[in-house]
TrEMBL record:
PANTHER family: MEMBRANE TRANSPORTER PROTEIN, TRANSMEMBRANE PROTEIN YFCA. The keyword Cell membrane applies. Its main location: membrane. InterPro entries: TM_pro_TauE-like, TSUP. One of its GO terms (cellular component) is plasma membrane. Belongs to the 4-toluene sulfonate uptake permease (TSUP) (TC 2.A.102) family. It holds the Pfam family TauE. Keywords: Cell membrane, Membrane, Transmembrane, Transmembrane helix, Transport. This is Probable membrane transporter protein. It is a multi-pass membrane protein. The chain crosses the membrane at residues 6-31, 43-62, 74-95, 102-120, 132-160, 172-192, 198-219, 231-249. It is found in: Cell membrane.
Length: 253
């Protein structure tokens, strides 16, 4: 990256951290989608940096919320996302070597769907979902998270439907993000995806992530949640459609 590109990347890190702290997910989606659409970095590099950033963001946010974690839900979700993260990362390696256009197209579809989920206010169920629903949600999140470091939408949609307090839902989601990030980082290290450039970019991003997350968490009650969701929705839809069109164009050549 040039100095200008790095500056743009750090601004996107700040915005994505803000969105994540307000909505409970979307850090990886915003960062991956916009960075890829602007051509600031390739998907493998961006996903590696996102994994480190997501870990710091989630760990910073959960430090005062960990007592509210729904351990039963976390356990079933983890049974899905931990093993399927391996599959997702394997798909990333395969597609990055064989069809970058298809990799970009899939990312675009994921970003568009997640953008739609941001505006959906899922009605709470009268009864808790069964283990299979958590396992399925975790599995989808594992594949997407393994590929792009951005599987939070599948987890968030299911969790926000549960008849639980919002504080419990957010604490559980943050725990999921910590675990998925750690899992992906371990796999990336084993696969050789983490080089000096990834580490250097991550180190520059950490103060931004921690600062934005701490400030946003502290003043969360004063931030208009719906307005933030609408802004993120517009950004994700525009970005996702751009990636889909670009991917289809490349596949058609």
């Amino acid at each position: 990256m040039t100095g200008f590109e790095l500056g743009v990347f750090l601004l996107l890190v700040a915005f994505a951290s803000f969105i994540q702290s307000v909505t409970g997910f979307a850090l990886g989606l915003v960062l991956m989608g916009v960075v890829t659409a602007l051509g600031l970095a390739d998907i493998v590099f961006s996903a590696a940096v996102v994994s480190f950033i997501a870990l710091v963001n989630s760990a910073t946010a959960i430090r005062t919320q960990w007592r509210g974690v729904d351990r039963r839900a976390l356990g079933w979700l983890a049974c899905g996302f931990l093993p399927l993260t391996v599959v997702g990362l394997a798909l990333l390696d395969y597609l990055s070597a064989s069809s970058v256009a298809l990799l970009r197209l899939i990312l675009g579809v994921v970003v568009v769907v997640a953008g739609g989920l941001l505006l959906i206010q899922p009605g709470q169920l009268s009864q808790r979902s069964g283990p299979f629903a958590f396992l399925l949600s975790g599995s989808v999140a594992g594949v997407i998270g393994g590929m792009y470091g951005a599987g939070g939408a599948a987890l968030a949609y299911l969790m926000y439907r549960q008849p639980d307090p919002v504080a419990v839902i957010r604490a559980t989601l943050l725990s999921c993000f910590v675990l998925t990030s750690v899992m992906r980082i371990v796999l990336m290290l084993a696969a050789g995806h983490v080089d000096e450039t990834v580490l250097w970019t991550t180190l520059l991003s950490l103060p931004v992530v921690i600062g934005v997350t701490m400030v946003t968490t502290r003043y969360a009650g004063a931030i208009p949640d719906l307005l933030v969701r609408r802004a993120a929705f517009l950004l994700l839809i525009a970005t996702g459609l751009g990636l889909v069109i670009h991917g289809l164009w490349e596949l058609g050549d």
